[in-house]
Amino acid sequence: MKNKRSIGLSVVVPIFNEEESIPQLYASIQTACEKTAEIYEIIFVDDGSRDGSFRQLTRFYHEDPHVKVIRFRKNYGQTSAMAAGFRAARGDIVVSMDGDLQNDPTDIPRLLAKIDEGYDVVCGWRKDRKDKLISRKIPSRIANWIIGKITQVPIHDNGCSLKAYRKKIIKQVSLYSELHRFIPAMSSLAGARIAEIVVTHHARQFGTSKYGISRAWKVFLDLFLIKLLTGFAARPALWFGLGAFFAVLFGLGGLLGSMTVGIFNITLPTVALLFFSMAGHLMVMGIIGEIIVNAGNYRPAKMIVVQK
Fold first, then answer.
1. What is the model's pLDDT at position 213?
2. In Å, how far are 16, 47, 61, 63, 119 from 54, measured between CA atoms?
3. Phi-psi region of 120 (alpha: psi -120 to 50; beta: other; left: phi over 0)
């Protein structure tokens, strides 16, 4: 039987310079949580705001026992803020959302209902997105298509922060850099069942967007990392072996080329030697990776605790 005092729902909200949005945001989240009939907590993570955001959050912290506040001394980014909130969350279900009022807290009960169908992660899809077409919508659609193809997790809107997770899943996901948008793909490593529902999206009421097309390069680098994790985490030798295979091919090409242009041309043999050396290094790294993975997968037998 479930402990009646246990927390059923944690709502994690990163905040960065959202002083004007916070009162309305808090009231909306509180109303939505009350409708769920769950014991809940609201975790605001102040990501080094330079306006009066922390003052607003402190006021609600003292007025409402459901509110918890985490404060960063400087701005570390949305991923770090979410990670801190997830670590502090005690609810069986954890919901994340933005703090700019563009996500709608009234969608929280719908996310929970989808979780109750047996899913581990439920992602929001801003199908009718209220953003600029050229700078936000089109790049987002292209990025989501590429992410879906590479990660094999076909989510329409990886950038939507409004998501719900079972605690046992989100606690296993290590977040850093800009990886918060890849949580569904990373959750798939733990065998999570993932679903997606259409959610409401509002136009920004206050302030300006903290993100732009300039982050595309970071997304590309993180996508490369995610592909490594999702595709080769269990067998790193396959990844390094693939690189070694192509290095050997280039090395052989260099040797054949040196035979064509003449034996006294040292450029192509030198290039071939470098590629063969690279292949050897990659193979050794693959072997080391396999040893590390196998060591990390070791699980000791359960202990039996004998009490007097």
1. 53
2. 9, 9, 10, 14, 35
3. alpha
19: CB partners within 8 A, 6+ apart: 49, 51, 52, 53, 55, 56
Query: Quick check: 111 and 162 in contact, CB under 8 A?
Result: yes
pLDDT, tens only, 43-56 = 999 999 999 999 99
Of the candidates 68, 15, 59, the residue with the CA atom closest to the CA atom of residue 40: 68
Q: What is the pLDDT of residues 135-161, one digit of tens each?
A: 667 777 777 777 777 777 888 888 899
**DSSP-assigned letter for residue 135:** I
Backbone angles phi, psi at 42, to 5 degrees: -115, 120
How many CB atoms are closer than 10 A to CB 213? 12
Q: How many CB atoms lie within 10 A of CB 124?
A: 27
**Contact of 120 with 196, CB cutoff 8 Å:** no
**Rounded Cα gap, residues 179 and 172, in angstroms:** 14
Helix (H) or strand (E) holding 15: strand 9-15
H helical segments located in the chain: 22-35, 53-63, 78-88, 108-115, 138-151, 167-170, 183-187, 216-232, 236-261, 267-296
Question: In angstroms, what CA-CA distances link 166 with 40, 86, 91, 98, 114?
Answer: 14, 11, 9, 19, 11
Start-to-end CA span in the chain (Å): 26
Displacement of CA 72 from its chain's centroid (Å): 19
Q: Which residues, other chains included, contact 90 with Cβ-Cβ below 8 Å and sequence gap of 6+?
A: 7, 10, 41
Q: Cβ distance 63 to 114 under 8 Å?
A: no
